[in-house]
Amino acid sequence: MHLSRFPRVRLGHLPTPLEPLERLSKRLGGPRLWIKRDDCTGLAGGGNKTRKLEFLIADALREGADTIITQGATQSNHARQTAAAAAKFGLACHLLLEDRTGYTSADYRLNGNVLLDRLHGAALSERPAGADMNAEMAALAEALRGKDRKPYVIPGGGSNPVGALGYVNAAFELVAQANDRGLQIGHIVHATGSAGTQAGLVTGLVALNAAIPVLGVGVRAPKERQEQSVLDLATRTAHRLGLPGIVRREHVVANCDYVGQGYGLPTEGMIEAVSLFAETEGVLLDPVYSGKGAAGLIDLVRKGFFPANSDVVFVHTGGAVALAAYRAAFGQPDHL
Ligand SMILES: *Cc1c(COP(=O)(O)O)cnc(C)c1O
């Protein structure tokens, strides 16, 4: 597969490490667990959006854009990484932030990703929960065009066939790492939201005929809807790669049992997962995505879902910057 055919800028510190989780594996007593450190992509706190932005920013530059517009929740990691990428390429950046949780604490509204959005020079504006964010971005783009700007709109999560190429690339990278060390991956597990990560991974793995199943752990939508959006995007991504029809329905599997009350709302499983990774491995997960993804991983290990003598790779998609915004969820005393 010749990904160099597609315009790409360099933003990530790649390849990201693939590391064993020895203490956590021993603690849980199931399969051998590994971690693909996409929290270490290097751009402004790292995370999975950096890989997508390598292709999205290149596409924006190819179109002659001078301004990037994107959207996400208040504590969006995608918004933060987009602001950093835009800064690096001298592009203006407008972030539309949807108040999806209704949280009013200063930590949530001003710290974590929001603090970093501002440090990267992005213009922030807020929209109420349930707003049509695509329509809001289109309206802003129209207004900016009226002022002679050249906006480029990146969808939420950077999830379209351009952004998903970043995770096709990640699939190639991960399989090469496994081949190098003679590791036979039994399963890949990661948090899935706007679907670009899973769509790219699945498409890349199928293109390689790797026969490695991917399990997306949902953070928002119910299973049926999540799987449909991953399948739709994977289908379009395969088409873009010149491999139409390679991704089939059965390649796309999501487990949406770990969402809890809703997007961005803490669960007990998430709190346990964040604490367990921090205390046994020195790895920081996040409250919205990787923490819920790892909660699913841990629960499924305990239920014997993965064969005991297999190797399971958890893709750490990043997000620890948001921990500062969720201080209250961790029930800690307000003094040292
Ligand atoms: C965006 C995000 C995800 C989900 O990735 P999608 O491509 O949107 O499905 C997972 N983890 C973190 C930390 C994220 O920021």
From TrEMBL:
Q: Which InterPro entries match?
A: ACCD_DCysDesulf, D-Cys_desShydrase, TrpB-like_PALP
**Boundaries of every Tryptophan synthase beta chain-like PALP domain copy:** 10-318
User: What UniProt keywords are attached to this protein's entry?
Assistant: Lyase, Pyridoxal phosphate
Tell me its cofactors: pyridoxal 5'-phosphate
Molecular function (Gene Ontology), one example = D-cysteine desulfhydrase activity
Q: Which residues form a coiled coil?
A: none
Q: What class of enzyme is it?
A: lyase
User: Has UniProt tagged this entry with the keyword Lyase?
Assistant: yes
Q: Give the EC number(s) under which this enzyme is classified.
A: 4.4.1.15
Q: Do the record's keywords include rRNA-binding?
A: no
> Which PANTHER family does the entry mention?
1-AMINOCYCLOPROPANE-1-CARBOXYLATE DEAMINASE-RELATED
Protein's recorded name: D-cysteine desulfhydrase
